[in-house]
Structure formats: structure tokens, C-alpha cells
Amino acid sequence: MAILVFIIITFFALLAAASIFRSLWISIQQGHWLGKWQQQLRTWDLAGKTFWHNALGGCAVCTSHFAAHALGLPYLAFILFQDFVHINFIWIFFIYLGYVYLSTTVNQYFITKLFK
Predict the structure, then answer these.
(1) Which domain of life does the protein's organism represent (predicted)?
(2) Which of 59, 63, 72, 98 is the most exposed place for a label (fewest CB within 10 A)?
(3) CA atoms within a 13 Å half-sphere pointing along the CA-CB vector of 49
């Protein structure tokens, strides 16, 4: 029963993270309410700060991976404080990595293929 609850929580966490990320991704595009963000990205790109440019909106894959890490930490904290989790820290590391890679893929799907 505990594994089923874990899978359900993980599924809804992935869905919520992808939805949040899609909303933010649309918001930072030109012409939307955070459209001025594109000017800041251009400034960082010209200044040679390619990590910040790519991670915060300049590259869809890089941004979705950055968001997977940022939104994966609350998921991990939530999972760790559940009563059904009695696993060692090696498994927690692999659960986090699995979540990040699944989340990156789902985030990428949500911004490139979904609703187009």
C-alpha cells in the first residue's frame, strides 16, 4: 500500500511541477506579463553569463532541467517527512535523480508538444 501512495504522490508532483513550469515559461515570453525578462536574459548573454541565460529562460531544455531541480527539492522534502518512508539515504538519492530526470522530460513535453 505504501508504494502505491508513493507512486500517486510522485505522479501528482510531476504533474504539478510541469504545470507550474509551463505557466512560468509562457509568462516570460515576449508580450506576456513577464516579457521584460527577455531583456535581462539578453543582458546576461552579452555579459558572458551563459549559465544564467540558459537556466532561466534562454534554452528550453536547460530551463526545464533547472526547474526540475528547483521543484524537486520541495517534493523530496515532502516525501522524506511522510510516515511510510523508511528507506536509507542511498535510495533517497536515486529517487531524487529519477524524479529530476522524469520531471525534466515532462517539463520539456509540456512546453514543446502539449497544446500545440
Answers:
(1) Bacteria
(2) 98
(3) 11
* 2-27 helix and 60-80 helix, angle to the nearest 10 degrees: 140
* Residue-level length of the chain: 116
Helix, strand, coil percentages (3-state) for the chain, rounded to 5, are 80, 0, 20
Cell 524524479, residue?
A: 99
Question: For each of the chain's 116 residues, which pLDDT tens digit applies?
Answer: 778 888 898 899 999 999 998 888 888 887 888 777 778 888 888 888 888 877 888 888 888 998 999 988 898 888 888 776 666 778 788 888 899 999 999 988 988 887 66
Question: The C-alpha cell of 26 is what?
Answer: 509562457
Global pTM reads 0.78
d(CA 114, CA 43): 30
